[in-house]
Specification:
The chain has 371 residues and is mostly beta strands. It contains 1 helix and 28 strands. Strands 3-2-1-28 form a 4-stranded antiparallel sheet. The protein has a 4-stranded antiparallel sheet with strand order 4-5-6-7, with no helix packed on it.
Length: 371
């Protein structure tokens, strides 16, 4: 009986200690991963910690891999998926990793279906989409229950061109699963279009939707997008003409292009390209990054029509804000400045939408932030 009680005591103590450690870890803040380009000091994917006061701390190198310029996480947070933005053997690759505390363990790699994959997305069922920039196409793969990536299941090839030197052919820059469904939106900077399809989970193919395409203003160069929480409004960041375009999804599943607003301050005339866009979880504020002005443009969102109003700009305190992210609680906004090798955190005012500088940390060629 004494032995039995001792065993029970050990079990209880171990369980309490484990639970305490979990609580302590949660109280420290949020950990996040950083994708990089590995053409200089970087060796791959790094892990960082954003503490509860917004200060940043590097944990260390999580995985050695080539040019992991964009990252995504499985819905259960067990697996991380990363592109390798290369054109090795005519195609880039996508890798899956098992998340193990402060490290990432490589599970396997598969072809992305095209050169220079620059974006990856994963839905709740484990389907994986890659946007291949130079290939001008979208690859479809799938994660199994053990985190293994399938071979390429389907390939959606884009065609067409627009007016600028970067728009002489297709350049798929991102691809998105619409929330709560199997609709897919590909964003092609080269053809200057949003391209719509549906994921057929029986055939495991991408099937063209009707309508199939929505063109942006000539020369706009769409890059990324974000969905309003109401599911009705979509906002597209245009890299080349530095604007945000509102797109409305109608009750009949048509997509209607609305107004476009500049992301730049009045009077700014120097070279600039836009990169990333995110909306707050309450749908009240939208943020977009400028590379050149090196700022985050802040917009308020009209709750009735979804129209945008420019609130102001916040310096990113670095050069080349390629990617940024809102923290899971929406209290902070973190920016990855590619050319100055730093990540900067800002406290977000949820009433005004404005940003206030908190902290920064060194990071080697950071180009993607994933909580």
């Amino acid at each position: 009986m004494k032995i039995f009680l001792a065993i029970i005591s050990i079990f209880v103590l171990t369980s309490c200690t484990t639970n305490k450690e979990i609580v302590m870890e949660e109280n420290k803040g949020y950990s996040f991963y950083v994708g990089t380009y590995t053409n200089s000091e970087s060796k791959g994917i790094y892990k960082y910690l954003m503490q509860n006061d917004g200060t940043l701390k590097q944990i260390g190198l999580a995985a050695t891999t080539e040019n992991p310029s964009f990252l995504a996480m499985s819905s259960d947070k067990k697996y991380l998926v990363a592109v390798s933005e290369t054109n090795n053997q005519d195609n880039g690759t996508i890798a899956s990793f098992l998340v193990e505390e402060d490290s990432l363990k490589l599970i396997n790699q598969s072809s992305s279906g095209g050169k220079h994959p620059c974006f990856v997305a994963v839905n709740e069922a484990g389907y994986v989409l890659s946007a291949n920039y130079t290939g001008g196409n979208i690859g479809l793969l799938k994660l199994d229950r053990n985190g293994n990536l399938s071979e390429l299941l389907d390939l959606q090839q884009h065609s067409g061109s627009d007016i600028t030197k970067r728009q002489k052919g297709p350049h798929a820059h991102s691809v998105w699963f619409e929330p709560n469904g199997n609709n897919v939106i590909a964003v092609d900077l080269g053809t200057n279009e949003l391209i719509f399809s549906q994921l057929d989970t029986v055939s495991q193919k991408l099937v063209a939707s009707n309508p199939y395409k929505l063109g942006m203003k000539s020369g706009a160069g769409p890059r990324h997008l974000t969905f309003h929480p109401n599911g009705q409004w979509i906002y597209v960041i245009n890299e080349l003409d530095c604007t945000v375009t509102q797109v409305t999804k109608t009750e009949t599943n048509d997509y209607v292009k609305g107004a476009s607003l500049s992301t730049l301050p009045d009077g700014f005339t120097e070279e600039n390209t836009c990169a990333d866009i995110h909306i707050s979880s309450d749908g009240k504020f939208l943020y977009a990054s400028n590379r050149g002005d090196n700022s985050i443009a802040i917009f308020s969102v009209d709750s009735d029509e979804g129209s945008l109003n420019l609130v102001g700009h916040e310096s990113t305190r670095g050069d080349g804000p390629r990617n940024f992210s809102l923290s899971p609680d929406d209290n902070y906004l973190l920016v990855a400045n590619q050319h100055t090798n730093n990540i900067v955190s800002f406290k977000r005012d949820k009433v005004s939408g404005l940003l206030n500088y908190v902290s920064e940390v060194e990071a080697p060629t950071p180009v993607c932030i994933l909580f």
